[in-house]
Every structure is written in C-alpha cells, then in structure tokens.
From TrEMBL:
Organism ancestry: Bacteria, Pseudomonadati, Bacteroidota, Sphingobacteriia, Sphingobacteriales
UniProt KW 4Fe-4S keyword: no
Lyase is among the record's keywords: no
Source organism of the structure: Mucilaginibacter boryungensis
Protein name: GLPGLI family protein
Region Disordered: start-end pairs: 213-234
Keywords, sorted A to Z: Signal
Amino acid sequence: MKKRLLTLSFALLAAFAAKAQKPEMAQAVVKYKFTHLRDTTAKDKPYTENMVLFVGPTASAYKSYDRKLQEAMMRKQLEQQMAEQRGSGNMNFKVQSRTPTTNTEYYQFQAEKKLVRKERLITPYIIEEPMPVINWKISADTASFGTLHCQKATGHFKGRDYTAWFCPDLPFHTGPWKLNGLPGLIVEAYDTNKEVVFKFEGMDEVVKSEKPVVAETPPPGMGTTIRFGGDDPNLDPNLITLPTDAVKTSEKEFVKLQDAMRKDPQAFMAAMGGKMGMMPPGAMPAGGGGGMGPVRMVVNGVPGGAAQVINNPLELPEKK
C-alpha cells in the first residue's frame, strides 16, 4: 500500500506545477450563505456554510469564510500551547475544530474561459476544466437585494434548474461556485426545490492598502481576528491568484489520491513527506529543534467531507 502511495505521489509531484496565472486584484468581496440539503431523509438539517466570492475585472475566487475562521482559531490554539509547553522536552498539542467546512475553492478566469478547482490533500492540487456554459433565459422580473437592483434569469445546470438574480450594474460575469455567464454579478441563486441555495449576505468594496495584510473581523463570539484571502502571507489577501506550489493534476488522478488518503491517512502523509498546513504527528514546529523531544498533535472535530450521508449531491446526473 505504502509503495503504491509513494509511486502515485511522486508521479504527481513530478508533474509540472500550476502554470502561473496573471494575478488580478479583487474589486469587491461578496458574501453568501450556502445551504445544501445533502440528506433528503433529514430535511430539517441542511448543510450550511458562509462563503465569499472575490471578484476582479476578469477573474474570481470562491472560498469558505468559515474555513478561514477555523484555520485562524487553530493557529491561535497551537501558538498558545507552544508557548505554554516551550522547554518541557515533550510537546503535546490538542487542536479543536468545531464544524465541517469546505476545502475546495473555485477560480473562474473569464477571459480564458477556464474554471480551476483547487483542492488540498496536504499538498495543494489544481484541476482545470473549461468554463461551464449555462443556457440562461433572462426575464423582465426584478428584485432588490440591499441596495442592488437585480434581474431574474433561469437556467439548467448539473442536473438542477436554477433561478439566479444578477445585477446588471455590476459588470462581472461571474457568481458563486461554478455559476457564471450572465451580464452582471450573480447576487443570489437557488434551485427549484431550494435544496441548493446561495443566499446574498452582503458585499464589500475592496479598499487598496499599502500593506499586504488585511484583517477580517469575525462574527461575535468567534474570539479572534483573521487574515483572510490567499495562502501566501506575503501577498495581498485580496489578490486573485493560484498558489505557485500547487500541483496540476487530472480528476482521475485526484480521486485516486483521495481514496488513498481515506484508506490509510498515516501512510499517505508519510508518502507525501509530511507536508501539511498543520503539523503532523512527529513534526517539528517552526523554529523547533535544539534538544526538543517528540512532538504529538491531535486534532479533534470533524474534518470537511467526513462521514455524512449525502444522497443528494450538489451535482446531479442528467436525466436521459
């Protein structure tokens, strides 16, 4: 098993890394409340998550807001525990993760008609595909979302019939998730049965700062302030750009990696050389060494995509 993992991981890592995409500064950040009825036998318990869409002139990036909050909280927990245990000889870290969050990010590049999905299995991976083409029918119906005056459109996509409200005054041909192709920003969207909903929660204009660090204040009770945006701490968080260390792969190969990680997480981590955003068991924290004893880390909580009934996936097979 471990040998097969090594062969697979080395083959992927040997593939060329993500081709540098020209970075683009976001002009606005749109907030959505994403709701998805994953289990039709538990209609009173839909999956919900706060998401954000970074919107630029020709590109956009759709990410989990809740995930960034959790990552910031986990980093804070690690920093506190490292400070408390420094010099003890043995370090034991216990990190609490509250709820499942989405690990996937979607990047739309309208000028190149390309959609890029970013995944992370210790190492970041990107999967490219053509920009989805949705046959929208625009109606004369209008509605307002906050101060935004929007127009209605309907279209069929990935096995579902969607209603989308777009704002013609905002000349961005993008929207949440994979939705795109309307003459204005998609502000809100939902399928016929409202099993999938992208609810508009507000929009902020991006104010350019001389400093690359932009802080985001979380909702009351979260207890921390986070830096929100890209993976590289040296870049402006409002910059829409793919990670330079990402490995470009195919859907087929990525599925193989996912299966390998589910079957044997420890062997997978060993095969990948222990490269993790968070420290794996036995790893040294940054600046560690110098007589430090074994390091052990336990993450409590349910990681995104963990054992949950999904009999109603986001993308449904098309009816023949």
